[in-house]
Amino acid sequence: MQYTQVVDSRHSCRSFSDAPVSRQQVEQIAALAGKAPSWGNTQPWKLYAVGGGKAEEIRRRLVDAMRSGRPQEPDITMPMGFEEGMAQRYKNLGRSLFKALEIGREDAEKRAAHYANNFGAFGAPCLLLVTVPKEQTSYAVFDAGAFVHGLCLAASSLGLGTVILAALARFPDEVRAVVPIPANEDMVIGVALGHPNPEAPANLFRSQRRPLEETLTIFDL
Ligand SMILES: Cc1cc2nc3c(=O)[nH]c(=O)nc-3n(C[C@H](O)[C@H](O)[C@H](O)COP(=O)(O)O)c2cc1C
Question: What's the CA gap between 142 and 108, in Å, rounded?
């Protein structure tokens, strides 16, 4: 696949089949993503790939933790609000996704089920958990972001689906209860990986992008 095709084919996948992901696929994806640039080639990321019964247990624990209503304790502070433009785009995403999923504004039950689905990684058979060493600057998270995008693009080039999920990093103690992620690493984010259900409405949905004029300023070109 050409680079442009890979970039165009990647989108957040929010419905996965039960088909497992192989160890070889994960290794291939991790090796490609590992080509990401980083500050001074420090490569601060670590990747924990979890499948099988352990992935199932993490998904179950995270859904239970979310439903319990106990406070979320992510290793890295997550945003609680956004400046105006960002807030508008955040709202638009929620509205248009719910419309595509035919979840009504007043349908509290379906909304709660969708929210729980986030924590259940939309049924993905493989969970990718990305960490950086504790007490690093924001640039380690910046580098991890490049790595995570690489994971998603590499998966897409193999016909696999991904969705980056903050939901997987909101209760890191539940994840650590299943897989031994060291306490001296911060869990930055999780990624759900698996085989997409191509016809699922959630997977036919596409998010919008800002017009280029809003984000690009060119001088002297
Ligand atoms: C840091 C980060 C956290 C995210 N967390 C979630 C999440 O918890 N649930 C979800 O459904 N999507 C999540 N997403 C996916 C975004 O909603 C998605 O990337 C964005 O809407 C753009 O759509 P696209 O990925 O289909 O291009 C997250 C993405 C990023 C980069």
Answer: 36
**Which of 119, 165, 171, 188 to mutate for ligand 1's pocket (most ligand atoms within 8 Å of CB)?**
165
| Cα-only R_g, the chain | 18
- pLDDT of the residue at 14: 98
Domains in the chain with CATH codes? 3-205 (3.40.109.10)
Residue type, position 220, single letter: D
Alpha carbon 155 to chain centroid distance?
A: 13
Which residues, 6 or more positions from 5, have their beta carbon under 8 angstroms from its beta carbon?
none
pLDDT at 137: 94
Q: What is the mean pLDDT of each run of 10 residues along the chain (221 residues)?
A: 94 97 98 98 98 98 97 97 98 98 95 97 98 96 98 98 98 98 98 97 98 98 97
**Contact at 8 Å (CB) between 156 and 162?**
yes
Q: Which residue has the tokens 């984000």?
A: 215
Q: What is the DSSP code (8-state) at residue 121?
A: G
The beta strand positions in the chain, using DSSP E, are 46-50, 126-133, 161-165, 185-194
CA distances to 84, 96, 108, 186 from 44, rounded to whole Å, are 32, 35, 40, 11
Q: Quote the CA–CA distance of 160 and 173 in Å, as a whole number.
A: 28
- Ligand 1: which residues within 6 Å by Cβ? 11-12, 14, 93, 118, 163-167, 189, 207
